Amino acid sequence: MTEPEPPPFSSASSSVVEEVEIVESLTLIPGLPKDVAALILSLIPYSHQARLKATCKSWRLFLSSKTLRRLRLRELCSQSHLLCIFPQDPSLESPFLFDRDNLAWAPLPTTPPNPHTYGLCNFTSLSIGAHLYVLGGSLFDTRSFPIDRPSPSSSTFRFDFTTHSWESLAPMIHARGSFACAAGSNNHILVAGGGSRHTVFSAAGTRMNSVERYDIGKNEWVELERLPGMRAGCVGFFVEKEEKSGFWVMGGYGEERTIGGVFPVDEYCRDAVVMQFNNSTGCGNWREVGDMWEQGEKVRVGKIVVVEDHERSGHPGVFMLDGNHIFSPSGVWTLGCSKDEETG
User: Fold this and answer.
1) CATH number of 114-300
2) What stretches of the chain show up as alpha helix (H) in DSSP?
3) So where are the chain's domains?
4) 138 contacts 196 by C-beta, under 8 angstroms
5) Better pLDDT: 161 or 205
6) CB 333 within 8 A of CB 339
7) What's the mean pLDDT in 192-203?
8) pTM confidence score
9) Cα separations (Å) of 57 from 100, 160, 264?
10) Residue 255, CB half-sphere, CA atoms under 13 Å: how many?
11) What is the mean pLDDT of the chain?
12) Spatial separation of the C-alpha atoms in residues 288 and 266, rounded to whole Å
């Protein structure tokens, strides 16, 4: 994730006024001009700010203000990258941020606890602006039966880096874990597929094909056209282009089958689907792209990872991780057209 930045003000003048008021009202470093002191404090990495807030009241107020984020963007003209790691259930153990530029760790507070649930896993997290989102997952609920089977979660939490606190948002329409998720344009979050699945039970889980879009400004979820088939454990990403943008869903596992009618096993999905959006209307429909891997190339499809390429916008790298091996679907299809469309 990228170091958080606050959402823009409604006008440039209002942001300037706030910055002036914050800087002028606080004595940050005695003996230095206030604008110089503000610039010095703005250079402090986020991973160190929590400890320095206890220095004095003026530092605590300044390091918790939106002015700090704006000064970093304006003066540094660059963003450092932070890695967020969730050791386990974020309501039981603190997530951690790793600052690669300064080789420093910073703990985050835990998400709001629920006395009836525990063991959350298979959730999805993503960062947008000055916020970190934690969506869905699989968990154990003491009120469910049987209690030894995981249940999907519809919860949505958001961490504000400015206030250093979590808040609960509108829950998803459908509870889900192990689903595709991506941040779309116009402050939207897209989720697709998923179900209920836990690492202890390799194949004993549910699948679904529902798709939802979250409007950050309105704090509401809207149901979209469903996936062409059931899919869970999939990966999702958003590709933006000038006229059309696409929400890609690939990999995962579809229908379940049994061996000898007893042992459940997964049917792994070799293909990908994309919902093509018209940027002017905001509507889209699903289109099947085709298999990522040739028949016989790989019987079991491993974990799929998508890496954004900042130098080539709209052309992320797609890789499959299987043990110590890394595969790439080059030569099978490219982002934007299926294999049949390439040969045609």
Assistant:
1) 2.120.10.80
2) 12-25, 34-42, 46-52, 57-63, 66-76, 339-343
3) 23-76, 114-300
4) yes
5) 161
6) yes
7) 69
8) 0.76
9) 29, 20, 59
10) 4
11) 77
12) 21
